[in-house]
Amino acid sequence: MAFLAIILVYLLVDKGLGRYGSQIEYVPTTSDLDGLVIAVKTTLKFHESRIRDIIDTWFQLAPNNVSFFFIHN
């Protein structure tokens, strides 16, 4: 699982997605993402910027694998 996460980070950062650069050359298939969980813990102060960044990156590749946790402070 960790190896897959590292590959996805490489794809997003090195190859680019959305505002980070050009298009991704390889898009993982649904079976590649089985078992991958992307959790984002956020607070009111950072909620908007964190949610926007995740939707622009990880959510594009694995919308069913992304969960957001909000802590009211």
Automatic annotation (TrEMBL):
Membrane topology listed for this record: Single-pass type II membrane protein
GO terms under cellular component: membrane
InterPro entries membership: Fringe-like_glycosylTrfase
Chain ranges of the Fringe-like glycosyltransferase domain: 32-69
Name listed for the protein in its UniProt record: Fringe-like glycosyltransferase domain-containing protein
Localization of this protein: Membrane
Keyword tags: Glycosyltransferase, Membrane, Signal, Signal-anchor, Transferase, Transmembrane, Transmembrane helix
Any Pfam family matching the protein: Fringe
Principal place of residence: membrane
Signal peptide: 1-18
Gene Ontology MF terms in the entry: glycosyltransferase activity
